[in-house]
Specification:
422 residues, 40% helix, TIM Barrel, alpha/beta
Length: 422
């Protein structure tokens, strides 16, 4: 039985050039694993807390030396000597050490870096790919090459991910789930380049946002949707047959004094008015998914939208649910949505993340495993998404290295699974 012999954390940079935590763990039989933690720009109020130094003399206060020290000086003492295959035990040690509900003592970034590294170390010790280890560890269904998660490509970045002129945070193209992953990736890449060509032709800004999508100078959210329709129409693919549209409204960022403000409508909107606006958008474009359509505490509006269009559309809870079991239980009870965005750094440990996914699956929620806007170039999430049997992955546009690393890993997994069955 392997035992952990060393735990070492350090400060690295993420895709936005901000510091984050990277942890390396070794066993006494010389297996090793490295894990780095992403960071969000648009965060739910109830997310586990990432620990930042707040020292204005370093990285404008964004340093993570405190979180690094918490791993090296506190967590390491309790994790060294543990069996890396006992994931639940290790995660419970981390939770007990922190002792707060939102992981604010040690920092969710410190905790997840260790939890995830231990998980990948467990896979290495078992000499299994991480996706296969995930299946074995938590009893999820075995994946096949034909049923990998469908990618949700964020081709236009707005809100906190863009240039500030689009209210909605993300505008998605989503290949049909009937397509093999390799076909879906090809579609995403072709549409990405199509969109760039159209922006160039229109002499529009075609700079790239945090998640690799374009951040053009448009006047309204509807303009952005129309641009995606034009992009698809100029391709060999058929809208609402080969490829679908989706939105991340990130409505909590638009909500002030009980009203929502979007550029498409002159007056500030109530929850009911925004609901009707989204229902009309769906009538026009047959959306596949709408993420965070309302503020994260507007349970009534969520439930009414789900009741109205939830049979045709995925109503996805991100800021609403923050990968948190208690929030998911409340959403199930209130029938507030029918899909959940899964981000391990919102909750802080791998075992808690797996527990949330199991509960969501049991209640027929669609599972969307997601990156963060400030990410790193590792591909763990691709394996994890396959291992838990996610329906979708949201890794950004098919551009920027930290996004492409995850898509390329899914391509490899498809080939690997094909060879096993061949």
């Amino acid at each position: 039985m392997a035992k952990i012999k060393s735990v070492y954390s350090r400060e690295i940079l993420d895709s936005r050039g901000n510091p984050t935590v990277e942890t390396t763990i070794w066993t006494d039989n010389n297996h090793g694993a490295v894990s780095s933690v992403p960071s969000g720009a648009s965060t739910g109020r109830l997310e586990a807390m990432e620990l930042r130094d707040g020292d204005p003399q370093r990285f404008e206060g964004m340093g993570v030396l405190k979180a690094v020290a918490n791993v090296n000086q506190i967590i390491s003492k309790y994790v060294i000597g543990q069996d890396p295959s006992k994931q639940n035990n290790i995660d419970q040690i981390l939770l007990n050490l922190d002792g707060t509900e939102n992981k604010s003592r040690l920092g969710a970034n410190a905790i997840l870096s260790v939890s995830q590294a231990c998980f990948e170390l467990g896979a290495a010790c078992e000499e299994m790919p991480t996706f296969q280890y995930t299946v074995e560890k938590y009893g999820f269904a075995k994946p096949t090459a034909l049923h990998l998660p469908t990618p949700i490509f964020n081709l236009i970045n707005g809100g906190k991910h863009g240039a500030g002129n689009l209210d909605f945070q993300e505008f998605h193209v989503i290949p049909s789930s009937q397509k093999k992953f390799s076909e879906a990736l090809e579609m995403g890449s072709e549409l990405y380049h199509n969109l760039k060509n159209i922006l160039v032709e229109k002499k529009a800004i075609h700079s790239v946002g945090d998640e690799g999508g374009f951040a053009p100078n448009l006047f309204s959210n509807t303009d952005a949707i129309e641009l995606l329709v034009e992009t698809i129409d100029s391709s060999p693919y058929k809208l609402n047959k080969d490829v679908f549209l989706g939105l991340d409204v990130a409505a909590s960022t638009l909500y002030k004094n009980g009203k929502y403000k979007i550029s498409d409508v002159k007056e500030n909107m109530s929850g009911e008015q925004l609901r009707d606006f989204l229902i009309d958008l769906n009538k026009k474009y047959s959306l596949l998914s709408i993420e965070d359509p309302f503020d994260q505490e507007a349970w009534k509006d969520w439930a009414e939208l789900t009741q109205n269009i939830g049979k045709q559309v995925m109503i996805v809870g991100d800021d609403l649910l923050v990968t948190n079991r208690k929030r998911l239980e409340e959403a199930i009870q209130k029938n507030a949505c029918n899909a959940i965005l899964i981000k391990p750094n919102q909750i802080g440990t791998i075992s808690e993340t797996a527990s949330v996914i199991k509960l969501a699956k049991k209640n027929n929620f669609s599972i969307v495993v997601s990156h963060r806007s400030g990410d790193t170039d590792e591909d763990f999430l691709a394996d994890f998404a396959v291992g838990v049997g996610a329906d979708f992955v949201k890794f950004g546009a098919p551009g920027r290295g930290e996004r492409v690393a995850k898509y390329n890993r899914l391509s490899f997994i498809q080939e690997y699974l094909t060879s096993l069955n061949g």
